[in-house]
């Protein structure tokens, strides 16, 4: 009955590899997000999709490519992984773009690039 | 655009003592305000939120926060903390006409017996 679920929870990979993180929400929300939490625990938004349309694309290397096959899913694909990509990545969802609702977060994916 | 400043990066506190975590925001438009909590090795959970109406909002586990528009603050308080309140606390803001949630740098609360 998890509201926002991410897989995998942990991901260890070598530099240069390509990896994906999956996110699914069963809340019926129409907006989903990816946030990156660095080693100092600072949270920064990367992307946001509303009804499968990209609406926020912060200054993120183009090695990162989000894909939203439907409103309930937002996956994150990362090409040519670098050491600096090591972080915890959180998926989140909310209802509506400008409505007064909070975002619900997944448990996070801890990515370690070695 | 909005920004959030959490004035304390670390707050050590003894069990059953009160705690206050300070949060100030900057915005040119009206805002929604949130406090999220992150327990060790877990995701973020919403603690409480201010959307409109009463400026004092409360959570079910004893936390409260007060929206002060003139001081652009949303400080979080709890009169008596438990060991289980040890966590990272994030203040967040979203403008009424903004799509994204902006977070502060977080405050680490460590409760000791």
Q: Could you characterize what this model shows?
A:
The complex is a heterodimer of chains A (114) and B (113). Chain A has 114 residues and is mainly β. Helices cover 0% and strands 55% of the residues of chain A. Chain A has no helices and 11 strands. In chain A, strands 2, 4, 5, 6, 9, 10 and 11 form a 7-stranded mixed sheet that branches. Chain B contains no helices and 12 strands. In chain B, strands 2, 5, 6, 10, 11 and 12 form a 6-stranded mixed sheet that branches. A 4-stranded antiparallel sheet of chain B has the order 3-9-8-7, with no helix packed on it. Chain B is globular. Chains A and B meet through strand 5 and strand 10 of A and strand 5, strand 6 and strand 11 of B.
The radius of gyration of chain A is 13 Å
The helix content of chain B is under 10%
Tell me about the biggest sheet of chain B? Answer: 6 strands, mixed
Total beta strands of chain B: 12
Strand proportion of chain B, as a percent range, falls in over 45%
Amount of beta strand of chain A: over 45%
N-to-C order of helices and strands of chain B = EEEEEEEEEEEE
Largest interface: A-B, 24 and 25 residues
Q: In terms of per-residue confidence, which ranges of chain B show pLDDT below 50 for 5 or more consecutive residues? A: none
